[in-house]
Amino acid sequence: MSTTTPAPIVRFAPSPTGRLHIGNIRTAVLNWLFARKHGGKFMLRLDDTDAERSTDAFAEGIAADLRWLGLTWDLTAKQSARTARYDAVVAELKASGRLYDCYETTDELDRRRKRQQARGLPPVYDRASLQLTTEDKAKLLAEGRRPHWRFQLRNHAGDPAAPVTTSIGWVDLVRGPQTVDLASLSDPVLVRADGAYLYTVCSVIDDVDFGITHIIRGEDHVTNTGVQLDIFAALGATAPAFGHHSLLLGADGQGLSKRLGALAVAEFRDAGIEAMAVASHAATLGTSDPIAVFPELDALVARIDLGKLSRSPARFDPAELAELNAKLLHALPFDAVAGRLATDGVLATPVFWEAVRGNLRVLADAKTWWAIVHGDLPASGEDPAFLAAAAALLPPDPWTLDSWGQWTSALKVKSGRKGRELFHPLRLALTGLESGPEMKALLPLIGRTRALQRLNAE
């Protein structure tokens, strides 16, 4: 009797406190590709329990950014709509004794940590609140204190005041075998004094309820995974598989944290970067495969392999993304861009696209070349006698790709010029620029009438 592995369900869980940036774009792309490769589902979950910073505008912006990238989702949820469910689970954890109330202030905890460090002890919470009597708690409440609630890690043999080494492990999809010693950690706060729930508990409850099978996220969550595995066990749930990819650095080797505003999806889009350039870069950056651009997401699906992700931090260089974008445009067929060009006022033809695409950095550059081909240009003012001679030798219509070579060969014989001395004044007069697409492709598009005008012929 054969068994089949259930299709994976993964989730991308941004907080709507800002727009998506290159770091979380990478996480989203890896999750989406993994789900599609294995016939699974991709969930968009908005972790919006931070009511002060979360906004509908940011939530809508995140959805718009994902759609632009082509990352559609099969399931969606907002944590702000699931408070009743969190209330029920938290009540169960309190009743079982795994959640206990603590009354220390931030300053008191800070002083306690400093005393522990001064004594050479790890700055781990000592569970002093477990020693409080009912009378002690009543007194603290009367003083106006409100408790926060900590999750008691299962790192002792019956006496919470005497934690023992307790390794909890998993085989990471990226990093291989991993272990975390729960005795080295403080019992995490799951409920703040104001009653707000922290990410740690909400995330586990959501993962259980939505049947998440694989969690792919940044390596800054590795230690957090040990804690969450203990919470899964406390809820009697099977934990998902975990994979922790490396974080990104800037091209200079420094962290990106202070530059994320300039590395947002919206910024890339506004700068003319193509969605597939961003997705390709995110999917291949930090892998054993060379960074390359792909024309569509389906081509990336076949390449996704979490085992190819390096454990070393990957470096994100905007210049590298710009190069990928240019390569993508250079390979796109006319049908892929015709509609967008028309929307931008460029009523192009396949011949025009073939002529200019190799010189584009962003698609908007095509509008510049459209204006150069079809618009009016001022006289170059360079070498008028030579340009007049060139005008006199212009071949008759119709012009083809061979016309440029025929014309310049005749002009070379007539003038005795060659190389840059021959070609540079012609390019400058006909296009107004020092460089650009091959002139043999541009000349038929410019046409004989405009060419004569630009050569300043009488």
What key phrases describe this protein's structure?
single chain, 458 residues, alpha/beta, three-stranded parallel β-sheet, 12 strands
What features would you describe in this structure?
- The strands form 5 sheets. Strands 1-2-3 form a 3-stranded parallel β-sheet. A 3-stranded antiparallel β-sheet has the order 4-5-8.
- The model has no long low-confidence stretch (mean pLDDT 93).
- The protein is an alpha/beta fold.
- α6 crosses α7.
- It starts with 8 loop residues before the first strand and ends with a helix.
- The protein has helices at residues 22-37, 56-69, 83-96, 106-118, 134-142, 199-209, 222-234, 265-270, 275-284, 297-301, 318-331, 334-343, 350-356, 365-374, 384-392, 403-415, 419-431, 439-454, and strands spanning 9-12, 41-46, 75-78, 99-102, 148-151, 167-172, 176-181, 189-191, 214-218, 241-245, 248-250, 314-316.
- It is elongated and about 105 Å long.
- It contains 18 helices and 12 strands.
